[in-house]
Amino acid sequence: MSRAFGDEESDRPRGGGRRPEIRALLEGLLAGDLGVDDVVQRLRLLQVAQVGECARLDVNRDLRKGVPEVIYAPRKSDEDLIAIVRRFLLEKGVALVTRLEPARAELLRRHLEEGDQSAGGEREEAGGEREEARFAGLVFAYDAAARVLAVHTASYTPPVEQGCVGLLTAGTADIPVAEEAALVITHMGCRVIRGYDIGVAGLHRLFEPLSRMIEEGVDVLVVVAGMEGALPSVVAGLVDLPVIGVPASTGYGLGGDGTAALLSMLQSCSPGLVTVNIDNGVGAGAAAALIARGRHR
Fold first, then answer.
1. Most distant CA atoms of the chain, gap in Å
2. Neighbours of 88 (CB within 10 A)
3. Which of 53, 90, 205, 256 is the most buried (most CB within 10 A)?
4. Does the predicted model carry a pTM greater than 0.70?
5. Which letter, b or e, does each residue of 140-167 get, where b requires 16 or more Cβ atoms within 10 Å of its Cβ?
6. What are the start and end residues of each CATH 3.40.50.1970 domain in the chain?
7. Rounded-to-5 percentages of helix, strand, coil across the chain
8. In a 10 Å sphere around its CB, with 0-12 CB exposed, 13-18 middle and 19+ buried, how is residue 75 labelled?
9. What's the CATH fold of domain 164-294?
């Protein structure tokens, strides 16, 4: 059945659906069968927001494992994508979307902003209470080249900055993948230092940005490269930091879809280099931020 944007009944958490489980946890705590830390962890696991029949959102993934849920736009209908983003804004005050084409980004922006106006400044919660809509003054940050969107409410508070990640690319064509990683890194509370277009065809370009990153105390490096994918191995052989290689689908002919770069990174003889899949900026960014934040606990 189709669902209109703004249909509260279709995407509101089902009232009382978690109450028996929460009650059992509290009773276990009172009886001494469970500790406080056990209850906190299990409560985190219960935080799922239902959006109609299309999605079960892991809204507290950032609390449970330090990595926010990122919305992958392809193969979702416009209706479902709007509903999912809207729900994240209601629950978390922020939504991150990847592989989002410009036309869909504009459609999303228009629906969210028009939805605010039509809501009359209020919305009804599952418990029957009404409170001010949190959509007033939405802030959109869309990168058309990287096809990534971050949208947050005016009341959203970003995580405390902790840790620093260096982002390097072999070529200009690899920047969109790096910026996908940056989306995740910054929303996990890490600072990003960039050094782009420094591939092995002109290796002397590498030394200034790499030296600057080391001087500024980066905790981990993410290196994106297409073609033969040599740059991550070179970088890993020069530094005493973890290096995450990201093969990019940049190149000509056989292997130019990223497979040549992937195989090169997997066969690297430089210790300290690990590799994610082709064009996986999200995975690289999440791993890098976890490493960086972990070094400052």
1. 67
2. 23
3. 90
4. yes
5. eebbeebbbbbbbbeebeeeeebbbbbb
6. 164-294
7. 40, 20, 40
8. exposed
9. Rossmann fold (3.40.50)
